[in-house]
Amino acid sequence: MAADARLVDRLMDPTSLERWELESVSDIEPEASKSTVRRAAFRIGTDRITEIAMDEGHRQLAEQTTAEEAASDRAITMSRRRPTRAEDAE
Length: 90
What we know:
It is built from five helices and no strands. The chain is an all-alpha fold and 90 residues long. It has one domain (13-76). The radius of gyration is 23 Å and the shape is elongated. The mean pLDDT is 89. Residues 61-90 are annotated as: Disordered.
């Protein structure tokens, strides 16, 4: 808990690297309140957790996909792509 409190203090310090990063990845203003800063940091953290969970879900899905399913998916993708200029010239 003390480490969390120190991080919040750094996030409130307009000259800290932590605050600089928070401002660069969120839409908070330099004069934002403590609750706004904490909400923005929490939102970024939950977004990152969701992103990691989705990546893991995709990895698990890919792991379960058979070679035949993967080939079928590739064929569908290729059929939907626009022809290249070289193919148009033929």
